[in-house]
Design a protein that fits this description.
23% strand; seven-stranded mixed beta sheet; alpha/beta; binds S-adenosylmethionine; 192 residues; 6 helices
Length: 192
Amino acid sequence: MKLERVLPFAKKLLENAAGFGDIVVDGTIGNGHDTLFLAELVGENGIVYGFDIQKAALVVTEERLREHNMLERAVLIQKGHETVSTSIPEEHHGKIKGAIFNLGYLPGSDKTITTKANTTIAAVEQLLDIMAPEGIIVLVIYHGHPEGAKERDALLNFCCQIDQKKAHILQYQFINQKNNPPFIIAIEKSQA
Ligand code: SAM
């Protein structure tokens, strides 16, 4: 298939937004695959702020980063991403270039611990305030489970109402695939 698949496209968007020495956010670190990708992207002078409410996610991610010798590039925070603006020091506000939220629950773990529309929206609103102009937020939406379907509807509704002067918002989705595959909403903060 020549069309870019959803997860590689998410990475490409982040590569467009951020690079060496930048500050980025992983809103849902889970097993740390995206955190590691971001740590590689920003290099040894960059910072990845990673959030998850589950201690186990921080433990696995810390280990993954350590194995790759990248632990010092990450600040892992065991708090909900809805605390992003207070958890990231003010000196870094206005400098965040990219963020990813791989939504839903951690495969193979407790399915009741899942992201929820109201806290995801709170995090996006805060990030839009504290990101750099042209910073990109990538939301990967898994809507094949009941909470995910609610989150999808709420996020689409919220994003459609954001003023186009404030952000450019893209939906990237295969529309004829079975079993509700994930899709992307990407939000680029407008230039000041
Ligand atoms: N990006 C991860 C990876 O590379 O393995 C996968 C993330 S998994 C689909 C979703 C994660 O979101 C779970 O680990 C869950 O604990 C976490 N989560 C749920 N609600 C959250 C919240 N309010 N803030 C931060 N993380 C949350």
